[in-house]
Amino acid sequence: MTKALASVMALLSLVMITACSAPPRTTGDEVQRLATEIGSLGPDIEPEEADRAASIAYSYTAQLVQEYEITDPPLIHNAKVNKGLRPRGLCWHWAEDIERRLKQENFRTLDLHRAIANADNQFRIDHSTAIISRKGETMYEGVVLDPWRYGGVLFWSPLVEDTKYEWVPRSVVLEKRRQEQYGELLPYVGG
Fold first, then answer.
1. Cβ–Cβ contacts within 10 Å for residue 96, how many?
2. Pick from 137, 75, 64, 159: nearest CA to 102
């Protein structure tokens, strides 16, 4: 390998490592776009609640990036969590923590849901997310809030437009697993 080629390869490696090391800063425009999307879920959604939910989704994602010690893309971070090198940061951690934080707001016009994708796909790992919807609506009318997908950069989309995953209510996936493991002998205790 020539010295010039080695230098180019080293530079490209550095750029790739740097690109994965820290999520970009969030702009007010991104927060406002999410607030607008949440507000568009129905005419009875309080604009202040939509604004607050969007702001929290972004600011809490940034807080979790620090708490989870995110420095790598999601699958590498997962391996570090599974080896005990990082405290948290698997997709279900993100979903659980975002849902818990947003529930603290006691929204009057918004509901929160949890969903899992790939549960029936033996070639892909399960993926969990939180979803926000209009009060009384199902998750299918909601907006996916997925900070895991891009390693601490909040991805959001109306569920129907999120073509990367086929989301299923978490309770349905867990009930199916319970039945597969225990059969019909035990009553389901939601979760």
1. 15
2. 64
What would the pLDDT profile of 19-36 be if each residue is shown by its tens digit?
444 444 566 899 999 999
- Averaged pLDDT, 81-105: 97
- Model's pTM, two decimal places? 0.81
Backbone angles phi, psi at 127, to 5 degrees: -135, 130
Closest CA to 46 of 100, 98, 110: 110
Q: Which ranges of the chain does DSSP label H, i.e. alpha helix?
A: 3-21, 28-39, 47-67, 74-82, 91-103, 170-182
Tell me the three state secondary structure of residue 148: coil
Buried b / exposed e across 53-63, counting CB within 10 Å, b at 16+? bbbbbbebbbe
